[in-house]
Amino acid sequence: MKKVFILLPDGVGLRNFIYTDFLKHKSDSKTVIWTNLNGLDLINIDIVKLPWYKNSVIAEAKRRALTKAELTYSAKNFSNKSFLDYIKPEKITTIKGKIKSILRDYYFKDAALSINNVKRLRKSFIQSVRKSEYFSKCVKTLELEQPDMVFCVNQRNIEAVAPILAAQEIGIPTATFIFSWDNLPKGILAVEADFYFVWSEYMSLELKRYYPWIIDEQIKIVGTPQFIPYNDVSLLESKENFFDRYGLNINAKTVCFSGDDKTTSPNDQEYLRDLAETVSELNNEGGQQYQIVFRRCPVDISDRYKVVLQEYKDCIHVLDPMWSSPEDETAWKQIVPLKEDSALLSNTVKHSDVVINVGSTMALDFAMNERTACYINYNVKSNKVWDIYKIYKYIHFKTMDGLDPVYWIDSKEEMKKVLLEAISDKGNKIKDAQCWAKKIALHPTADANKRIWNNINMIMDK
């Protein structure tokens, strides 16, 4: 019997893989979860604990320098300064952070001048990881467990680099799944594996474009399990039951506001206020009633929405994600989903009429459920660091080229008009939205995990 180690460094991987039908397709393989996440004791599956990851100042500085070098090189190589917008300013609050910043700038020097310089920095980063005690402990674990393959569910996590390198050290084949539709142009390919599992043909071309040393034979186009819950009828309940459970008005049009993390959209609370004012105005006109269901980003455990939620509690219904929530905001890596959240999200999407947010993947979730999406596209306050007009210049939005898949809210004054158009799909955008979804993720989406296991098995057989 073949043994597969599933390297699980974060909570989203738990939701997308372990809480979907992923393990049902493993055939005769013995599957072991390799993770340091807490709260998985109730899952009926073998778990091997990852060694505790201790921050290496040198390795993290090189990783940050590598990301900056890749983005700077891409901006020059592709004559597109938008790549530079992915480089986020660092918040330095400690002496250790200052040291990392100085080291990053040191390692970054001259690294972006050529692709060979970028590759040299990547090699230096990998060498630093190999010198760590964490790497040595991962080697010992694999020598003891002897898996036939290690499959990582997230290529961007620095904690996953050493386990993959450890597997390669002793000749175990490795693969990594590209975590999200926007990751490759962001320069966050931390994990270098033997094989790369990607969402689509489009993502395959992206991978070769940004990392030209990766060849076709290493790339497996499988789709993503992220959208599988929408095909799972066991998760869905009737609109009547769902609305009754959360005190929603069955006769009202339902607008889902999905929040981003604080870095991506620091003014979300103001956008929610604008939406609440718009919905209140519509309701005061009489006739058709409207309501908001608010789903915050699972890793945003701040209190930034508190005032607006209290002020507009008559029209905003909070449907908080069912994730574990540590009291310490800095411990966000240990925020993990509960299995029940898949049903909550699926029903929220299924029974809402439209979603509004700032450039979120939720537009794709709604498209796959034949629902429309609105992207907010105006600033609410001056901010020298953050500007919404940069958001939609990000390279990953080039997937929209030739399509018109979302409604755009260009000002608060337009919000009412655009919202009504989106709910009725006056602009007939659902068709383009579904084309966009098919461009980003291989369809049928329900078969993603089956395709992943077919490729895992083929790799082990070879």
Could you explain how this protein is built, in words?
The chain folds into 3 domains: 3-53 and 132-224 and 445-461, Rossmann fold (3-Layer(aba) Sandwich), CATH 3.40.50.2000; 57-124, no CATH class; 230-440, Glycogen Phosphorylase B (Rossmann fold). The chain has 16 helices and 13 strands. The strands form 2 sheets. The protein has a 7-stranded parallel β-sheet, sandwiched between helices. Strands 10-9-8-11-12-13 form a 6-stranded parallel β-sheet. The radius of gyration is 23 Å and the shape is globular. The longest helix has 21 residues, at 57-77. It has helices at 11-18, 57-77, 95-108, 115-130, 133-145, 161-169, 201-210, 239-245, 268-284, 306-311, 340-350, 362-367, 388-391, 415-424, 430-440, 448-461; strands at residues 3-7, 30-35, 46-49, 149-152, 174-177, 195-198, 219-221, 253-258, 290-295, 316-318, 354-357, 372-376, 407-409. The chain starts with a strand and ends with a helix. The model has no long low-confidence stretch (mean pLDDT 93). Helix 2 packs across helix 3, helix 2 runs antiparallel to helix 4 (115-130) and helix 5 crosses helix 6 (161-169). The protein is 38% helix and 12% strand. The protein is α/β, with parallel strands linked by helices.
